[in-house]
Design goal:
Largest sheet: 8 strands, mixed
CATH architecture: 3-Layer(aba) Sandwich
Number of domains: 1
Distance between the termini: 43 Å
Number of strands: 8
Helix content: 40-55%
CATH topology: Rossmann fold
Shape: globular
Strand content: 15-25%
Mean pLDDT: 96
Bound molecules: D-malate
Radius of gyration: 17 Å
CATH superfamily: Alpha/Beta hydrolase fold, catalytic domain
Strand order of the largest sheet: 1-2-4-3-5-6-7-8
Length: 267
């Protein structure tokens, strides 16, 4: 199984396909396997790599109090370097989108295109920050199973298949407690990167789940409007996790971006 030593930690990654590199960054509290359908569906157009971020999945455990978006972005940059690539199409889901935007700020020359899936550029609001602390309390009180119960309801669209529910539960229940706490603190304190959006000068794609209640389509459309020339795809029937809920729609939008085909405007 492939691992790369990056910034003093071992990162697990999985790869499929050949050609220009695409790096797919998972959300919270997930792991690389949220992108398995994209590895299958995009391997004919890209060398697709999905990693377990520091502390997640099969990557080394972490003892950091907080996993900052900058630290996670620096790890992704280190992985791209370790893979011998000069740049990558970067795709981030939710927390992975926060990391992708931090990577764009940190090492823009590494980024060939940017795809943001159900994410945002703004920092947490005061209510959002309090919600992070409350989630940490619930996690430590009720455990991962309690969190999975809550998140399967909150993250998925109205009629999730049993396979999608099972995949999500496996990811949540497989994530270490200390990683969840550190990632929640990292997201709580993340910077507002809204001012970066108008300066993005690589091809960009914004994907939102039509039924996402956590980061609704309006937020994604506003994000797309702020990025010059960004494409937008709103995925019907999907909640917060289109890569597992509607992988076909996500793959099609990514292929269109990678091949420079057909633009769908939702402005
Ligand atoms: C995620 O899916 O990564 C999280 O919902 C992001 C967040 O909590 O802000």
């Amino acid at each position: 199984m492939p691992f790369a030593r990056v910034n003093g930690t071992m990162l697990f990654y999985k790869e499929a396909g050949e050609g220009p590199l695409a790096v797919l960054i998972h959300g919270f509290p997930l792991d690389h396997s949220v992108w398995l359908d994209q590895l299958d569906g995009l391997a004919h157009v890209r060398r697709c790599v999905t990693l377990d971020l520091r502390g997640f999945g099969k990557s080394d455990p972490t003892t950091h109090r907080s996993l900052t978006m900058e630290m996670l972005a620096d790890d992704v940059a280190g992985l791209i370097d370790a893979l011998g690539a000069h740049g990558a199409d970067v795709v981030g889901l939710s927390m992975g989108g926060y990391v992708a935007l931090a990577l764009w700020e940190l090492r823009p020359t590494l980024v060939r295109s940017l795809t943001f899936v159900d994410t945002r550029a703004a920092a947490d609001t005061p209510d959002g920050r309090a919600g992070r602390d409350a989630m940490i309390d619930r996690l430590l009180d009720r455990g991962r199973i309690g969190l999975a119960d809550e998140m399967v309801q909150a993250l998925l669209g109205p009629a999730p298949s049993i396979q999608v529910q099972a995949r999500l539960r496996s990811m949540i229940e497989g994530t270490r407690y200390e990683t969840m706490v550190a990632a929640l603190l990292g997201m709580k304190d993340r910077a507002d990167r809204s001012a970066l959006l108008p300066r993005i000068d690589v091809p960009a794609l914004v994907i939102g789940g039509e039924e996402d209640t956590l980061i609704p389509p309006e937020v994604m459309k506003a994000m797309a409007r702020a990025i010059p020339g960004a494409r937008t795809t709103i995925v019907p029937g999907a909640g917060h996790l289109p890569p597992i809920e509607r992988p076909d729609a996500v793959n099609e939008a990514l292929i269109e971006l990678f091949e420079g085909r057909k633009v769908v405007w939702w402005r």
